[in-house]
Amino acid sequence: MKAGINRRYFLKQSALAAGALGATGLLPRRTYAATKGGTKLNCVQIGCGGRGRSHLDAVIVKNAQNLYALVEPDVKQHAAVKKILETKGIDTGSLQLFTDYRVMFDKIGKNVDAVFIAAPNHHHAPAAMMAMQRGINVYCEKPVCHDIAEARLMRDMARKYPKVATQMGNQGHCMEEYRRLCEYIWSGTIGKVTETHSWTDRANGGEGPRPPVIAPPAGMDWDLWLGPAPFREYHADIHPHEWHGWYDFGNGSIGNMGCHVLDGVFWALKVEHPTSVEVEYIRGGSDERYPIGSRIRWDVPARGDMPALKSYWYEGMNPTTTAKPQGNLHAARGDARNFPPLLLELRKQYPDEELDKMDSGTLYVGDKGVIYTGTYGDRMHIVPYEKMNATPKPAKTLPRPKDIFTDFVQACLAGHADTAVGFEYGTRLTEFAILGNLAQHAGQGKKLVWDGPNMKVTSHPELNAWVQRPYRKGWEV
After folding, report:
1. Rounded-to-5 percentages of helix, strand, coil across the chain
2. Residue ranges per domain, the chain?
3. Nearest CA to 146 among 371, 404, 427?
4. Are 228 and 472 contacting, i.e. CB atoms less than 8 angstroms apart?
5. Mind listing the pLDDT tens digit for each residue in 228-245?
6. Which of 407, 373, 187, 190 lies closest to 264 in space, CA to CA?
């Protein structure tokens, strides 16, 4: 795989683009709505299924912002979304419809205040960077990008345009529990944390060759759906959700859930660059598909007064014999061998604890105790609950946003970039998580030594081909 984005070339082109846009009065600028003295943003939704509909409900319905356009390569989704919004009292008569966000930016970009990106991962960085270059605020689902080089480029671009608000869709970061986790750990409640164990029942991967070629769904522009990814004919096990399991489009289970479940690890324990990452166990996968299950370990050096940390990730496990199948990507395809032993031990020791039996969570192991958090930091408590109730509560030192969408909308309307999960943080968390993908590409038992500041694997240089992907012609940023 050849590197597709040369960093120096990209930054040079970004500077040229910024100059050209600045000459037209588009960059930098406050939001269109704020400049006009209004209280509504002109919003564009890129990707209209799944999370995209959650965006629309939170921003257009509940936050009463203006939906200016939809971008979706499957035109059936245009009609479906319009119908849903109309049942909620939203007038869609003037709504503009596009199948290609490049065309949208060219035609109406000057009137757009914010874009909300819920397309598959391989579209995240191109769409977000095109928006930032035009001074348009960006909310992008997690992981904020598809590969590590994109994380660095997006962080550089966010710094280049400090008036542009950015937010990664990581709702748990705005919730109470992860903020309390930080305050408990930083106050020394469980002492020095040297291990974390994070898990998910997701199994966003596969085995074997591609399924046979079939026609894409009626109304879908398959070439636009592929976008910057290499061309392939349409086949089953890819749309609308299974793309997570293919190298070209997603980031496997860790890309799907890692930014949620590992957020507390990265934030509360002040993680920067791990020195190494290794897959200790792997099941399934192929030369173009992520595994069905794996166990990954990051080795994090000491940070300030925090000791060295071993952070573990378990995916695709089958936690109990009573687990009900959640589709072919969840616990039914898991592996009971790939499960945090400490969690099993704690369940036996504290059978009445509300420890997740089928979803996702994290255990933080300190020399004075253990803290548990759920998928989004929910149900944060010292184990057992009795100890939590007897422990003095630390002071609340972190701000409490209302929710992740309101936080972003308010920043856009105020014309500043101060958001809870801006790209400065979101790209770092994403990079930490998808380093696990590099280890999965290497295979079981290969310890990858990671030079974070220089963004390269020093122990297995052939793995650097996965740090930066090529872009298909016509989709270069």
Report:
1. 35, 20, 45
2. 7-171+404-423+460-466, 174-400+438-442
3. 427
4. yes
5. 999 999 999 999 999 999
6. 373
